[in-house]
Amino acid sequence: MEYIKLTLENLDKEHICCAISNNKDIQVTSKKAWLSERLKDGLVFLKSTERGKCFIEYIPAENAWCPIEADGYMHINCFWVSGSFKGHGYANDLLNACIADAKAQGKNGITVISSPNKMPFLSDPKYLAYKGFSVADKAEPFFTLLYMPFDDNAPVPKFKDSAKTPQIDKQGFIVYYSHGCPFTAKYIPIVEQVAKEKGIPFESVLLDSKEKAQKAPMAWTNYAVFYNGQYVSNEILNEKKFLDLVAQLA
């Protein structure tokens, strides 16, 4: 397998997700606009040269869009190997490239947000444990901050206190999101329209800076659903899932 690293020079032409074939799709353009700014912050997006979900995205933890305290670490935003790419050692290739890069930069280690059991949009905890990651901290309701220190004396990273018990002082459905995940650009407007048509209290909050994301009231900032102040889910909702959730909660 050959891999390519995204740069400001090749970002426009490179394919970033097998689920989206049109480079002019709002999901692609929003993600690439987000990436173009993060590349300046030290983000690395390494992917297979073949079309498909086989990539790793990581960034110095000081610039990560999540509420963690992990200075000196490299943070994995997203790590995805799916479908026909599984079982060939590609995940090891990508993770090893991240580890080598972090060590070359003198980092303390690597962090990644996961969960005790495999959940949508979160990296596989069993694979990460097998590769040597352990739990550094936890945040309700199911998030774990995993880390791989390169030295026994490396400081242990943690979630910020504001994210450990996710609650907000707002009623109705509130969704926090960023363009770190391309699918938010498609589904946020869809759910907003459905909520408006049906008179369902709904508000979307775009986290459009790392400062906002690092102060967020929940651990996972790509997408977070609250209802009447309580955290509900990190799963991106389409029309059906949203209405099912409304029926369940409201």
Please give a handful of descriptors for the protein shown.
7-stranded mixed β-sheet, 4-stranded mixed β-sheet, 250 residues, alpha+beta, single chain
Structural write-up:
- The protein is α+β, with helices and mostly antiparallel strands and 250 residues long.
- It has helices at 26-39, 90-104, 125-130, 161-164, 184-198, 210-214, 239-249, and strands spanning 3-5, 44-48, 54-60, 68-69, 73-81, 109-114, 134-139, 143-149, 158-159, 173-177, 202-206, 223-227, 230-233.
- The strands form 3 sheets. It has a 7-stranded mixed β-sheet with strand order 1-2-3-5-6-8-7. The chain has a 4-stranded mixed β-sheet with strand order 11-10-12-13, with helices on one face. A two-stranded antiparallel sheet has the order 4-9.
- A hairpin with a 5-residue loop joins strand 2 (44-48) and strand 3.
- The termini are far apart.
- The model has no long low-confidence stretch (mean pLDDT 94).
Please give a quick description of this structure.
The protein is built from seven helices and 13 strands. It has helices at residues 26-39, 90-104, 125-130, 161-164, 184-198, 210-214, 239-249, and strands at residues 3-5, 44-48, 54-60, 68-69, 73-81, 109-114, 134-139, 143-149, 158-159, 173-177, 202-206, 223-227, 230-233.
Helices and strands, with pairings:
Blueprint: E1 3-5, H1 26-39, E2 44-48, E3 54-60, E4 68-69, E5 73-81, H2 90-104, E6 109-114, H3 125-130, E7 134-139, E8 143-149, E9 158-159, H4 161-164, E10 173-177, H5 184-198, E11 202-206, H6 210-214, E12 223-227, E13 230-233, H7 239-249
Parallel strand pairs: 5-6, 10-11
Antiparallel strand pairs: 1-2, 2-3, 3-5, 4-9, 6-8, 7-8, 10-12, 12-13
